[in-house]
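Fold this complex.
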Amino acid sequence: MSSLPVTRIDARLAKLKTEGRAALVTFVTAGDPDPKTSLSILKALPGAGADIIEFGMPFSDPMAEGPPIQAADIRALAAGQTMVKTLAQVRAFRENDHETPLVLMGYYNPIYIYGVERFVSDAKAAGVDGLIVVDLPPEEDEELCLPAIKAGISFIRLATPTSDDKRLPVLLKNSSGFVYYVSVLGVTGVKSAAAGDVAAAVARIKAHTPLPVMVGFGVKTGEQAAAIAAHADGVVVGSALVNAVRDSLDDGKATATTVKAVTDLVADLAAGVRRGRP
Amino acid sequence: MSEATTPNSFRTGPDERGHFGIFGGRYVAETLMPLILELDQAYEAAKVDPAFHAELKGLNATYTGRPSPLYFAERLSAHLGGAKIYLKREELNHTGSHKINNCLGQILLARRMGKKRIIAETGAGQHGVASATVCARFGYPCEVYMGATDVERQKPNVFRMELLGAQVHPVTAGNGTLKDAMNEALRDWVTNVETTYYMIGTAAGPHPYPAMVRDFQSVIGVETREQILAAEGRLPDLIIAAVGGGSNAIGIFHPFLDDPDVRIVGVEAGGYGMHVYNGHAASLNGGRPGVLHGNRTYLLQDDDGQILEGHSISAGLDYPGIGPEHSWLNDTGRVTYVPATDQEALDAFQTLTKVEGIIPALESAHAVAEAIKRAPTMGKDEIIVVNLSGRGDKDVFTVGKILGVEL
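Structure:
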């Protein structure tokens, strides 16, 4: 494995390490609120301060998401989003951006139906750097994790407060890129963790892995991002961004302010992340 | 769709990772995995503990009223003019359906695991009522997730659950039916995983649920076997059960799977008809394999892997998936799965009520509909057993509305 070329994720995280700051990882749902606006949002994220992008593959039954991302998935699907369109948006993004790591995040069924082999190949060709698949625990690694790694796509694992010292080695075994620490028990976009709990959890995970640890769930503001950034390698924000999309809509349709609503919040979060480690 | 070879036995699955052929598995969020593994261990320990079985057997006998009778439906058989039809009377169980068999097993397990709170999903409300019942019996707080559409069409069961002390949460996401209720129950579980036991109502979900629920429901088939041997001196020619998630069906099927002379038929909800897109809930006849709610199984879905809502007159069958063992039994050819439409179920509901004085649940009426189709084509010396999984009191409002009667 040591002969693998340096990935965009590894390169970006190494660069941030030399800068001595945490990463801002932004999640938006592909196709929300419509394919065209979604691509504009995607293209605007790096300029606004996103270091790593998580691009959500919408699913009809997102079992681990709270109301904000559920609603974003419904908006995207209602606007006709498909896996083919999601991958096309990634390709379009890569035409102008060769450095920002992009991770597809979602649930397994749409990938399974697209076809694992075809998906891994098309995702790699489109410029996808990593995958987070919520309902594929290490027990099911043969499904997608191993084929993805073989194709040179990182497989990023969620660690949670229930991941004890016995469980962590199991879930970290085939992980790459970074570890996404889900800092609270629950669905996305509801509760927030206390900074002290986050520090202890990050330290515990780091005892098991050299991978950077990103922390998410419930981070809504630059202030919260700063507090988390003090203790982690990065901060993940999702629900707050899709809520910004929602709040910008007029009768469910994108407006002139939709992209700016997202980039303004990203800029605030990016400033917060930079304040995190003075 | 998938390759499946004929095994030496149809009764040995799943493997240790919960697979029935390519179906089953454990497709859940990482937060839940440690608990799923703990549940697996707890269930394996309970399975070999004679005290666990003794307590369950005692409750089945004195609380549920088991064994449920196997009743020769003499007038229905004569009416159809063919095979002899027996009804396995699960509708006579305490709470009015087979669901109590599973809930008693799971509440004993939850107690062994030291859990403090029970959650459940429900479609028709039968599993919700059974869950609320065992929680009342054992003194546990109980919260039930139920689609808002189902809350509306199954009001009597909602009130029963509330009387039993359960809190019913109407779920407005999606179409407000069983799939959405299950999503919401999973969200609750992820949030409260350390204190909460999730009492899944059907033989689906992540391993070990499909196998565990089947084991608790197999009492139906075990009794049926003894009862038909006592009544007829031989095994039946045909067993029929309705299939939504499929727990009553797997319960009566499983003890007969290795008897090749016993034909087995599962009846799916054909809704408005199989030709109507998203107008039925027949996952095996109208879906394809996918991954949802913790397992790989046949699902109603579109070409992009988005799950369809499906439709059935019966809230209990209105689910876009099916237990993974049924998917495997379908692909191996051991069990035949056919659809029955809303109209056929409605007709069977009325026929059984008028001819035998037994009001079946609309779910069970799908199985009766298939018996009505098949019995006339069979000889008078042939035997059909129909699993009458639930009683229809809860459905009289739905049926009345369709028949244009103000209640």
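Chain B touches chain A at residues 17, 25-35, 173-174, 179, 183, 186-187, 190-194, 290-294, 299, 301, 303-307 (CB under 8 Å).
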